[in-house]
Write a structure and sequence with these properties.
This protein is about 20% helix and about 30% strand. The longest helix is centred in the C-terminal third of the chain and has 18 residues. Strand 15 and strand 16 form a beta hairpin. The protein has a 6-stranded antiparallel sheet with strand order 4-3-13-12-9-10, with no helix packed on it. The protein starts with a strand and ends in a 5-residue tail after the last strand. The chain is an alpha+beta fold and about 220 residues long. It is elongated and about 65 Å long. Helix 1 crosses helix 2 and helix 1 packs across helix 4.
Length: about 220
């Protein structure tokens, strides 16, 4: 899949690819000298999330390349996981974070997008913002949010995604100490089933919460 987008005179231009977050489009061509990213309808790249400022960040095409800068946003702009404090020249493959609202990948003009950006390979995957208690499945945020019990179970599995989590661990993490003695096997299974159903609303084609008979549960498709 070629990453190249054509400008008004047929020249190749760089693009942004939306990996996570709410946006009207999955790809945005960086046409023009300055591209504004934000929540406002007048932005060139629109992120539909209240965590994004109206005018959040800007990408300017210069002689040195495409330069990313934060526009005094409330919740910050991130480049490859680091808070952006001064303008930086973008390199092919760089990851841009718009607060915790969206994750964009920069594909430079003349580059070929890696296969992982193909539309049929954007998912599956679960990502969590544990501070804000937000969950994305295959790039789509779960809305309405999970119940408290569902979230606690998913967070436990997410934090221990390299192994099987036992039922006793689930009880300790999800239920208060004075309630834990009365939790039945059926209650644990029902909670896991409801969590699967909520995840399936965003991605019905993959099984994320796997029951390991006789042992517990394991989470699939979560980044290390």
């Amino acid at each position: 899949m070629s990453s190249l987008s054509q400008g008004t005179e047929g020249q190749d231009v760089a693009i942004l690819m939306v990996r996570e977050g709410n946006s009207p489009r999955r790809q945005w061509a960086l046409q023009g000298a300055a591209i504004v990213i934000g929540r406002g309808e007048d932005c060139h790249v629109i992120i539909e999330d209240r965590q994004a400022s109206r005018h959040h960040a800007r990408i300017t095409q210069t002689q040195d390349g495409y330069v990313l800068e934060d526009l005094g946003s409330k919740n910050g702009t991130f480049l490859n996981g680091q808070s952006l404090t001064v303008p930086a020249v973008l390199k092919d493959g760089d990851e841009i974070g718009i607060a915790f609202a969206a994750r964009l990948s920069f594909v430079d003009a003349g580059a070929t997008a890696p296969l992982l950006f193909k539309d049929d390979e954007l998912g599956p995957g679960i990502r969590m913002d544990t501070e804000a208690k937000r969950v994305w499945v295959a790039g789509q945020e779960l809305d309405p949010p999970l119940s408290l019990a569902q979230y606690r179970l998913l967070e436990l599995l997410y934090d221990n995604r390299s192994r099987v989590v036992g039922r006793d661990e689930v009880v300790s993490a999800v239920w208060a100490e004075d309630e834990s003695e009365g939790v039945s096997e059926q209650a644990i299974d029902a909670l896991a089933r409801r969590l699967r159903e909520r995840i399936a609303e965003a991605d019905p084609d993959h099984q994320y919460v796997v029951t390991v008979r006789g042992h517990g549960f394991r989470l699939e498709y979560a980044p290390e």
